[in-house]
Every structure is written in C-alpha cells, then in structure tokens.
Specification:
Elements lengths: L5 H17 L9 H17 L2 E9 L2 E9 L4 E11 L9 H21 L5 E8 L7 H9 L2 H5 L1 E7 L10 E3 L16 H14 L5 E3 L8 H5 L4 E5 L8 H7 L22 H18 L10
Parallel strand pairs: 3-4, 3-5, 5-8, 6-7
Antiparallel strand pairs: 1-2, 2-4, 6-8
Helix pairs in contact: 1-2, 1-3, 2-3, 3-9, 6-9
The structure holds phenylalanine (PHE), calcium ion and zinc ion (3 copies).
Length: 297
C-alpha cells in the first residue's frame, strides 16, 4: 500500500477541530458539531467518487448519523469494511477520540480512489454515530442488514484512537496470542491481525494484542461472527514500565486527555498517527487485493 502523507491526515483533524470550535466545543451525538463533521467527511468522499449515504437514526430523542461510503466496483459478495466513530463526547472536541481514526480512514479512502485501481473485493468505509453512547450507530447498522448482506462482509477493520500522545501499538488480538481476556475473534480475525502485524514488523515497531473487550464498534460485527481487526494506541490506562521499554514514553496514561476538554490538536502523537495511517493503507490494499499485491493466506 501507499505511504500516506500524515499532513493530509492532520489537515482533516484541523477541520474537525475547527468544526468543534464553531459548534459549542464538541462533536457529540445529536449536536450540530457531529452533523457538520459528517458533512465534512461526506463532501470529501463525494468529490473523490464514492457513493455515500448519510443514514439518520434516533437515539435518546436525538438524531445521529452513520456515514457509509462505497467505492464503486469490486466483488460485493466479498466486501471489506473499514470504520471508526465520528461522534465524540460532549466534554471536548474529540481529536484523538476519534478524530484520529476518522481522519486516517478518510485519507486512506481518498488515496484509494485517487489510485484509480479497482480492488478485487468491494470496499466500504463507515463513520459511525453515537459510539460514545454504547456503539449505537454501528449496532443499528449491523442489525439492520439482512443475513445475506452480513454474510457478504468478509472483514471489518476498526480504528478508534490511533494517535494517543503516549502511544502503544496495539492490535485487536484476533489470534488471542496473549492467551488472556475475551479469547480470539471470529475465524479470520487472526489473519486480519497478521496483515497489520506484518506492516509494523516491516517498520521495526513491536506490537501487542488488545482484547476484543467490546469497547468499540467492532463489537456488533464480532457478535455476528464477522472477522474483525484494527489498531489502537491506548486510552485512559497507564503505559506499563515494560511498555515504556518497548515503545518509549512514560508510565502515565496513553491518553491523559481521554474524554476531556484537552483532547485537542495538542493531544496527538503525529508519529503514531503516521504509522497507523500507513498500516491502514497496507491492510486495505492487502485484504481488498488492490493492484498486484499478494493476496493474504
Ligand atoms: N471506544 C472507546 C471510546 O471511544 C475507546 C476505546 C477504544 C477503548 C478501543 C478501548 C479500545 O471511548
Ligand atoms: Ca506516512
Ligand atoms: Zn470515547
Ligand atoms: Zn472512541
Ligand atoms: Zn494477537
């Protein structure tokens, strides 16, 4: 896959920061800040040639949206989905959580369209609403599909918090290599983890597993047995001494501004953002079989 220019990703993040500032300081479910965030991402995707749907739903008496974007072409009976939540908490602008994942997958989507390649598999991106209120948008989406439609989703990659300022390099533990927690993901999740792992091995950055603990939008996908994967740089938990040995940083929270007003443009590791954006591109190009890359095993 291509080397994603991190400056393009931070430009999307700056746009989301500006949107929060112009809309009461946040991008939470049911607010003008969330609506404007969806419109920003949709505008970029429409201009690039995606087929987009802004799908409204009601939760807690307020309107939220899922944004679904299909790249025309590819085998729709073998669909690769890539998603992250575009809503934030009400206490701040939500730049790492989850402007980061939203902006990274947006830039990968734009780069994919610009490549002019038609992947063998169909590629669909999603920006979920109301994740912060309990994975509401992604759950509505997966539950709203027919059994046949669900069976056509080969894999789901999730990106929620990929630029934590004191980053870890975590991969959803599809193979349960650490032997703990929630066990492996649905069959196929191990390969999705391996594809991301191959990227980080190639740049010499060690990774660790993180359990499918149900805290992000892969939840409803794995509930229906859809293979899932993704990266995560850590939230409120403290980086351990062993993790500092591995990755540098300090034995403080991965994201000290998690769900706070200080989750701003200053609350980012651009190194982690760059590595994760490149890893996402590698995974999409590999799993969807873009160009003459070797298909995954
Ligand atoms: N989904 C959590 C949030 O948005 C963050 C998180 C992501 C926690 C992934 C654990 C794993 O607040
Ligand atoms: Ca890069
Ligand atoms: Zn959050
Ligand atoms: Zn999040
Ligand atoms: Zn693993």
């Amino acid at each position: 896959g291509p080397d994603i220019a991190v400056g393009n990703v931070t430009a999307h993040l700056q746009a989301l920061s500006d949107i929060a500032a112009a809309n009461g300081g946040n991008r939470a479910h049911g607010t003008s800040g969330h609506n404007a965030s969806v419109d920003y991402v949709k505008g970029k995707l429409d201009a690039a040639g995606y087929t987009t749907q802004k799908v409204a739903f009601t939760y807690n008496g307020k309107t939220g949206y899922n944004l679904i974007a299909d790249l025309p072409g590819g085998d729709t009976t073998n669909t690769v989905m890539v998603g992250g939540h575009l809503d934030g908490v009400s206490s701040g602008p939500g730049i790492n959580d989850n402007g980061s994942g939203s902006a990274a997958i947006l830039e990968v989507a734009l780069r994919l369209a610009a490549s002019g390649e038609t992947p063998t598999k169909h590629v669909r991106f999603a920006w979920w609403g109301a994740e912060e209120l309990g994975l509401i948008g992604s759950t509505r989406y997966v539950q709203g599909l027919t059994t046949t439609q669900r069976s056509q989703i080969d894999s789901y990659y999730n990106f929620d918090m990929v630029a934590s300022p004191n980053p870890g390099y975590f991969l959803y533990d599809g193979d349960n290599s650490d032997g703990t927690g929630s066990g492996p993901g649905p069959t196929g999740s191990a390969q999705l983890e391996q594809v991301l792992g191959d990227y980080f091995t190639g740049i010499g950055v060690p990774t660790r597993g993180t359990d499918f603990d149900g805290r992000s939008d892969y939840g409803p996908f794995i509930q229906y047995g859809i293979p899932a994967g993704g990266t995560f740089t850590g939230a409120e938990s403290r980086k351990t001494a062993a993790q500092v040995q591995l990755w540098g940083g300090t034995t403080t929270a991965h994201d000290p501004c998690y769900h706070s007003s200080c989750d701003t443009m200053a609350n980012l590791s651009t190194t982690a953002l760059d590595r994760n954006a490149d890893a996402i591109a590698h995974a999409v190009w590999t799993v969807a079989q873009v160009g003459d890359v070797t298909p995954p095993p």
